Amino acid sequence: MSKPKFFITDVFTSQKYGGNQLATFIDCESLSDQEMQKIAKEINFSETTFVTSRQPKDGGYDVRIFTPSAEVEFAGHPTLGTAYIIRQKLRLTTANEVALNLRIGRIPVIFTETVGQPIQLRMKQIPPKFGGRPEMNTLAHVLGIAATDIDPNFPIEEVSTGFPTLIVPLLSLAALKQIKINKEAYFALVSTAWAKIILAFSRQGYEENQNLGVRVFADYYGISEDAATGSSNGSLAAYLAHHKLFGNSNIDIHVGQGYEMGRPSTLALHTELSNSEIQVFVGGSVVEVAEGVWG
Q1: Which candidate in 29, 42, 47, 113 is catalytic?
Q2: Nearest CA to 13 among 294, 283, 226, 197?
Q3: Which residues are CB-contacts of 38 (< 8 A; sequence separation ≥ 6)?
């Protein structure tokens, strides 16, 4: 029996050791669910993916995504990174669009190639759903900041474009940098909530070419802080479009994340209206780091 092979990539960055780490396994059809989960825990990245067949099915490739503690229906940077491996390393297709069959459904990833520039990948996420609006003082306590640091002009709101996320608007980048999660309060909040992930953002980026700064916290899934979160930033894009933070429902911006972790990341967020429905796209580039055989 052949041993599974793996690739390590950094996603949402153009430089090695930035962005969000991803391990992608291939030739892993013989692995059980329990073995996949144990491998994901051993790797201990925010997510690990498994391409369970090299043969396309219904126009897409079957892929499973695991955090260190659980299998998930969808996640952003694993979608981009795995699509990159399928096209650029395995050479299973040369098409400009690669679709992944995830538990949440079929997610297409579009490749754009420009001479002298890193390949840009962009995924289309599912139409947004909006949920509850927790109270400001509760979130201030969870985030370890003052209630006056939260922007009162926009709601704290649960949003999902594939992975429910609680969006928290802050008034400054300084407040974003000061966040220190109160884990007891966090787990009390998410125990009954639809969204277990918290994304806080400021209307100031870490670098001049960024429109927003973002931090994402997901202790419920074994991830205290995430370096670059495509799924939650998709929810953020829907939130920005829905509430017209940039003046209308069509946005085309860049977001910085991961700086407090020493893994600077840049994500491109794009939305457009189609038949009164918000269409959400999240993109960035992928860097190859390593590859090998497991076991």
Answers
A1: 47
A2: 283
A3: none
| pTM attached to this predicted model | 0.92
Q: Is 291 a catalytic residue?
A: no
Q: Which residue bears the tokens 């981009």?
A: 80
Which pLDDT value is given to residue 2?
80
Count other Cβ atoms within 10 Å, centred on residue 119: 13
Indicate if the pLDDT at residue 119 is higher than 80: yes
Residue closest to 134 by CA, chosen among 176, 164, 171? 164
Backbone angles phi, psi at 39, to 5 degrees: -65, -45
Find out whether 289 and 8 touch, Cβ atoms under 8 Å: yes
